[in-house]
């Protein structure tokens, strides 16, 4: 029995040393780890050490490690570099969906090379799954499942389930089809066992099962599994034929990936940037956003240029204007984060959208006035200039109101017109608070102080 | 059969009208919806409409709706306002973990009122669960589970499972204990059925099962369920006694909540702010961060003040310095988002942490030079001042390097000393890029241009 597993340096060192010490030692050391733990250890091992371990272990365990490896550790490269016989053994052990995920990351000629070595059934199953978009139910689904005919009796169904489950480690739900493979519903093993001796599947089947189509977006699949607390969801084609199933563990991975996307996009990072990617990828992903921001920053700075004469007369405005703009940017980021996350988790009605903007208006007004008051007092006592204080108070309040309205309003509008609201990144939103912040403080100063 | 469910206005209107049309119509309309769908509809109904529907439906369905309601819709208030008899009926239908989650949100005297009406068994189970911290395995666990003695035969075990599952809608794993209720391992229903007629549980039990303790943090529980692809994980006490289980669907909710926390914290919003909370809560959650930011903004603006004479001589510096600071803030936010998310999903070694900072240094250098070049050209052709262009080029490059180092380095250091890295919100990080940005451009200008 084991409790939670956290990798530390000693584990990594132990395995690294065991690789050097020879195969017998290595085998003994690896026995202490679950396949998914070795997959985590792999993140800290060299490519050659990874290959050594995969070659040493039986295909059954090696395939589990490869399927559990994070996609950012590139299991496809490890797999492709193995001896063809070992590679084939491992692929044949993998679930079809996992094999497809890994193989899909390779070049076309590499994919072909792997598929040619497989037996006909595996090859055609994987070829079929490779046709679906990675981010849809088709891309996530597994064609291995337990499926019984609706006309079976309890006894025959149990025999059938035992037969089909021979090759399968886990199944959660039993799918029911008719003679034409048309999906009819689901039944649980528990209900079959509890049923009367002479029961028929047709009496036990739950017909109002939730399902998806192969082109259903992965986010929608995740939402359904989460909403209905399902261990798996069937995938059916346009003729109601059962194609496969997506299981809850795939969905957990999808949800993590979608959350990462939200966080990155809202911060002005391309959703395609791998968290552990190298600097070349990072520059490619971020430079375009920064150049866009440079354009908007010029826009904001042109406001400052326009008021150059005012700043020349009251130089302390240069210091205060950075405070107004910065505070606006931060308040806008707050409103943006709350709104984007809310849109991502819930479906908002028109009334709720309107109320959200109204709420952020109120929050901006109060937070603006509170911070404005502090700055007013500072200007009054430090600069001895109450009129300057008034200008700053008004600019702070106004800019935080604009921050609230744009931080909540822009993602809501984007969602309405069908654009991903997370694209309303802080980079876009802070343009508004920069431009309006500078306009407010410098414009008010020109009117009231000169 | 039904496909994915998306609420639209017509659903809400149909139900609202049915509430007015009378109970028979309402019953007919509600038949078309799954309990979890009604729970989503509730987000758009008034409190009185919610109560009307709950009172109309049998406790079995009403309890499902209440357990599926989002916590931000406050199911506890709805529950507490029901007639005591109806309330008791509903609570007795709820799973213990769901009942505990809902009741825990009420005031102490309200909790007492509800618990007093329950039967002794339910009341003591819920009282017990209420003692655990909401964000631990104890707070998430359910005490309802299927559990067999390790000494049973196949036949007796199946009888026992059927008996225990009478009251339970779903179970995924069967837990095995000895005569002293000490946890011994798990067994799947499939393995029991497939076993030989005279098999014993002791031959079938899988003994290396992963488990947690009641005080294990919910994030750790979620990681284990996700890492080992478990449908449920047992919770055991310090004497290895089985207390309950946490199921995958609770963990999906936890993961959503943790991702929301990450996004909010990184944007300078308190993790306690409810996404759909009112403006009072939002002000409470955000004002403290803004006031802290105001302090740091004063710090940055004091740099500007220090260089007042320089700005007076070259007023266009006031415009350029906002560009340098703004670009630094955005680049830092990018580096921060990638690093915080990476820390949250993976465990980084010292070497990997070091490489991360090095990578962000390189990214900052390249993105800084690229943007610096654009601004240099602008200063050269627009202001006709190549030396000013050089100053801006150097300041941009320097500030984006600082952005990369702090955006990656500060969360990594916080993690090292045991502080939540997401607290290194963009508000904190942009202080560095503001202060250093102003120092670089104004300091260099003073040296090179005056």
Structure characterization notes:
Two copies of one chain form a homodimer. Chain A has 450 residues and is mainly alpha-helical. The first copy, chain A, has three domains: 123 residues, MgtE N-terminal domain-like (MgtE N-terminal fold); 101 residues, CBS-domain (Roll), CATH 3.10.580.10; 171 residues, SLC41 divalent cation transporters, integral membrane domain (Tetracycline Repressor, domain 2, Orthogonal Bundle), CATH 1.10.357.20. Helix content of chain A is 67%, strand content 5%. The first copy, chain A, is built from 22 helices and five strands. In chain A, strands 1-2-3 form a three-stranded mixed sheet. The first copy, chain A, has a two-stranded antiparallel ribbon with strand order 4-5. In chain A, strand 2 and strand 3 form a beta hairpin. The N and C termini of chain A lie far apart (78 Å). The relative contact order of chain A is 0.06. The model of chain A has no long low-confidence stretch (mean pLDDT 90). At the A-B interface, helix 12, helix 13, helix 15, helix 16 and helix 17 of A face helix 12, helix 13, helix 15, helix 16 and helix 17 of B.
Helix content of chain A: 55-70%
CATH architecture of the largest domain in chain A: Orthogonal Bundle
| CATH class call of the largest domain in chain A | Mainly Alpha
For the residues shown, what is the average pLDDT of chain A?
A: 90
Taking pLDDT < 50 over at least 5 consecutive residues as the criterion, the unreliable ranges of chain A are none
Q: Which overall shape of chain A is indicated by the principal axes computed on the Cα atoms?
A: elongated
Side by side, the strands of the main sheet of chain A go 1-2-3
Q: Give the SSE order of chain A as H and E letters.
A: HHHHHHHHHHHEHEEHHHEEHHHHHHH
Largest sheet of chain A: 3 strands, mixed
Strand content of chain A: 5-15%
Largest two-chain interface = A-B, 130 and 131 residues
Count every beta strand of chain A, where a strand is a DSSP E run of 2 or more residues. Answer: 5
CATH topology of the largest domain in chain A: Tetracycline Repressor, domain 2
Structural class computed from helices and strand pairing of chain A:
mainly alpha
Counting structural domains of chain A, the number is 3
CATH superfamily of the largest domain in chain A: SLC41 divalent cation transporters, integral membrane domain
Assembly level: homodimer
Distance between the termini of chain A: 78 Å
Number of helices of chain A: 22
From the alpha carbons, calculate the radius of gyration of chain A and give it in angstroms: 30 Å
